[in-house]
Each structure stands twice: as structure tokens, then as C-alpha cells.
Amino acid sequence: MEPIGKVLSSLGVPNHSTKPEGTASRTSTRTPKADHDFEERFKQIQEEIARRREIIERAPVVNKTIHDPKECPWKDDHFRKCEDCKDGQRTVERWEPKPHRVIYDVSACFKEVRYRELIQKSGLVGIELEHTFEAAVIDEHNRAVYRRLQEWDPTQGRGIYISADKSPDNPQGNGTGKSYALHALTHRLCRMGIRCLYARTGFQRTYEELKQKCSGCWYCSGNRCN
Fold first, then answer.
1. Distance between CA atoms of residues 180 and 212, nearest Å
2. Residues 63/105, Cβ–Cβ less than 8 Å
3. Torsion angle, CA of 73/79/81/83, rounded to 10 degrees?
4. Are residues 190 and 129 in the same domain?
5. What is the domain extent for residue 100?
6. Are 86 and 49 part of one and the same domain?
7. What is the number of alpha carbons within 13 Å of residue 189 lying toward its C-beta?
8. What pTM does this model have?
């Protein structure tokens, strides 16, 4: 739909929103004739809007799909927000060169935006952001558990527990891929639009995290790690 100002111009209706510089305001006296003229002009505007609405509804439709936020035609429009795409579809009416409508399928793009927002707040950092099921190296040791994690439906109200097979050579079950599996599961849940929070134990904290939290221990005799 064209701006109302353009419709008014096409009908010859003067635009009184601005006054010439230096002119003084004065109280206008309304007359029956002025009221009649206004009503007639208003009626014309309504008829013109209805006519253009009928034209655009009969106009050809062009379908387009936006897969990634980089493809977004409104990314530089500060008045448009991603939340406007939450229904998965947006329609734009265009009059040039000929009247037509463009219907954008934005469902994939909105899901990607939502995923990025959730993964940013999930607690995953660094290389953990690359730990997905798609990037995993599948072998006989993790095939079954990865399949189970990808089939698990969190909406059924059942939790899930991941543990490692312990052996005399590895009594703690370290280095068996538990953390990677949780990272990948976090990615999957965020893709589903589910808010996640990945928390680390003290042994999983990175060196930089420990430096920030350390207040001096027996190992450094009161001096912060460096």
C-alpha cells in the first residue's frame, strides 16, 4: 500500500502538515461548505484506498524464501524487528514497475536467529560452540548414545543422564566424550527453541576462568596465577 501522503497528492489534496516559513497561525472558521468539501475528499480517499487494495489483492504473487539473517531484506531497517517474523511469513506490497506482492517464507531465518540468541546465552564458549552432532566423529563407542540423544524428546518430561563406562585403566571414566555429548545436546535443544544453561564443574573450568576466580591458594602461596 502506498503512503497516504502519495494518495492525497494524486487526489489533489493539499498537504497542510507544514507551513511556509514566516507565516503566522490563524484560527480557521469552519463553514458548512468546508465541512462538505472535507467529507467529499475523505470519501474520495477511502474509495482510492479501497481501489488500490483491490488492485494489490489481484496482483501477481512472487514467493521468496529467506534462509539466513544475512539474506534479510530488512536488516538495515531499524523499524523492522526479527519478532515480526515469528509467524514464519511476511508480505510486502510493491507498485513498481507493476503492482505485485512478495510473500517471504522467513521461518528458517527466524529459527536461526532464535537459535543464535539461545546458544549465546547457553553457557557454551570457545571450541564448545563447534561441538555438534553433525560435526561429531561417529564410531562404535558413541553411535548408540548419540542416536539416543538425537531421538530424545525433552517435551515428554523425562530427564536424561549421561555416564561413562569405567574400567581398571580408566576408573573415573575420563575422556570418553561426555562433555562433547552434552555440548551437542545443548546445540540440538537450542535449535528446538528450548532455553538451556550448560554449567561446568570445577575440573571443567578453563584456565582463564580459574584465573578470574582465584583469590590465592596454597599452590601459589597467595599470589595469583600468571
1. 24
2. yes
3. -120
4. yes
5. 61-109
6. no
7. 22
8. 0.62
- Nine cell digits for residue 27: 484560527
* 159 domain residue, yes or no: no
Q: Which three cell numbers stand for residue 215?
A: 583469590
Identify the CA nearest to 196 among candidates 207, 205, 187.
187
Q: Is residue 50 located within the same domain as residue 81?
A: no
115 domain residue, yes or no? no
Q: Which of 9-18, 72-81, 88-97, 150-159 has the lowest mean pLDDT?
A: 9-18
143/124 Cα distance (integer angstroms):
23
Give domain status of residue 194, yes or no. yes
Structural domain tally of the chain? 3
Does residue 82 form part of some domain? yes
Report cis status (omega within 30 of 0) of the bond before 14. Answer: no
Contacts of 154 (CB under 8 A, 6+ apart): 189, 192, 194
Tell me the β-bridge partners of 102.
62, 92
- Of 110 and 33, more confident: 110
pLDDT at 79 over 50: yes
Query: Given a cut of 60, is residue 24 above it in pLDDT?
Result: no
Residue 63 bridge partners (DSSP): 103
**Is 108 buried (19+), middle (13-18) or exposed (0-12) by CB count in 10 A?**
middle
d(CA 167, CA 189): 31
CA dist 143 and 141 (Å) reads: 6
